[in-house]
């Protein structure tokens, strides 16, 4: 049985702090670690924000099924989910 976890994402780029909170399967996050995340010009023209995703960029908040259910039911995702920006 796979379980979802709520994660915080935080990257300090040269231009700005980039953050997000999202829910994902732990397996999907594990597969993404070490892969390049390309956010494009999220900090303004010519900013080109990208880098390899590392565990230190993420904080697991909770895998409590009730909390995850509420998070998803109320669509509480906010900011950037690095899994959506993997450079394939």
3D architecture notes:
Helix content is 18%, strand content 39%. The protein contains 2 helices and 6 strands; from the N terminus they run ββαβββαβ. The model has no long low-confidence stretch (mean pLDDT 93). The strands form 2 sheets. It has a 4-stranded antiparallel beta sheet. The protein has 88 residues and is an alpha+beta fold. The protein has one domain. The termini are far apart.
Unreliable stretches: none
Mass-distribution shape: globular
Structural class: alpha+beta
Q: What about the largest sheet? A: 4 strands, antiparallel
The overall strand count is 6
Roughly how many Å apart are the termini?
27 Å
List keywords for this structure.
alpha+beta
Question: How are the secondary structure elements laid out?
Answer:
Blueprint: E1 4-12, E2 17-25, H1 26-32, E3 36-40, E4 49-52, E5 58-62, H2 65-73, E6 78-79
Antiparallel strand pairs: 1-2, 1-5, 2-6, 3-4
Briefly characterize the structure.
This protein has 88 residues and is of the alpha+beta class. It has helices at residues 26-32, 65-73; strands spanning 4-12, 17-25, 36-40, 49-52, 58-62, 78-79. It has one domain.
